[in-house]
Amino acid sequence: MPRIAYFGPSGTFTEMALAKLESAAAFDGPVERVAAPSQGAALELIRAGQVEGAVVPIESSVEGSISATLDSLAIGPRLQIIAETELEVTFTILGRPGTALADVRTLAAYPVAAAQVREWVAREMPAAQLYTSASNAAAAEDVAAGHAEAAVSTALAGERLGLAALASGVADHDQAITRFVLVTPPRVAPAATGADRTSIVLELANEPGALMRAFAEFATRGIDLTRIESRPTRTSFGTYRFYLDCIGHIDDTAVAEALKALHRTARIRFLGSWPATAVTGTPPPSDETAAEWLTQLRKGVADL
User: Fold this and answer.
1) Which of 68, 137, 240, 260 is the most buried (most CB within 10 A)?
2) Mind telling me the catalytic residues?
3) No. of helices (H) and no. of strands (E), the chain
């Protein structure tokens, strides 16, 4: 039975994403779930050989990319993303039985969750002061331990801890979605499906036009970039890594050519190619016609 880490403790949305991947047959069979205290800790368990993979959040439709996950993927021995899933995210306000929403003065919340319910809390719980917790499930544990009167958490965490739901379906934005990825040691990428995502990290020379030239490798080949983000390297002021997602697979000729071209001039880390849950954009162009034309030229065909 493979051991799969996740950003815990038990009851987080990440555990729910792991369960969704299990039900979608992302694994050969049942897995042993291993809770980790942070995204980075879950990934380090892979590097230490203690688990075969990890599920971590990587992007929110409301708050954008999860920086802790991106930074952990960019440094240390290379890991690889092989699958993804998405969850619609709404929160449950949990309290000990008998607690009234209007009486809550301390509200535990993971910072990403707090940002997604800020307007609702200001409107419905104006007297509550936020108390930072390590995760959505940890916020519920803080309530169970008496450190806070209520928590922004999940229904699953409430059920497991015997807490009462003071409010359900809490979110500032309709159809808020978080994307989660399954990460493993480096391996052969899953087969191309025609609806794939490829992700890389770039470190470019600090010289004029470096970023433009990198983007041109994709643009000239008709590759659709779906995410472009910079994060500081934390080594010196003004130095950045660039995280790029594109539509396509490493086995697509256009994507492979772009990666090879980037490798000649930049430090590039391949994070993986895998089937995307939802692709909005244009797949890379096929090279079948051009490849056949070149083959015929090499055979000496006169008229093409």
Assistant:
1) 137
2) 178, 180
3) 10, 15
